[in-house]
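My current task is to audit a protein record that another person submitted. I need someone to confirm that the token line plausibly describes how this chain folds. Take the sequence as given and treat only the tokens as open to question. This is what I was given:
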Amino acid sequence: MGIIIAGVLRVAPEDRDRVMTDIAPLNETSRREHGCQRYDWSPDYHDLGIIYVFEAWDDEESLAGHFSSDAYWKTRGIFEEVGVIESEIYKYQTDLRGPVYDDDGMPRADFFTTS
């Protein structure tokens, strides 16, 4: 079973680009952590205060390791320094997954395969 972290952080628009620059090397470090499948924090180009969070981890052990890493705590420090206006970040267990597109390239909302 995998774990997905997904959400949105809001900072002052004038702080967003500096935050993205400051966390970039920390994100690279996090991507190399044991059990990290995906790790992307990206800016919204329509709302200059928004940063999207998307992470995928193998399991709880991997995520717990990340939460005790220097990169995680340094990233938190950067956000504490600028001040987070809004934070909606959630974790999801992925008990079932499937492709969005079928063999004919058509999008499907149902889970039409097993994996």
About this structure: Residues 44 and 50 are 5 Å apart (CA to CA). The radius of gyration is 16 Å.
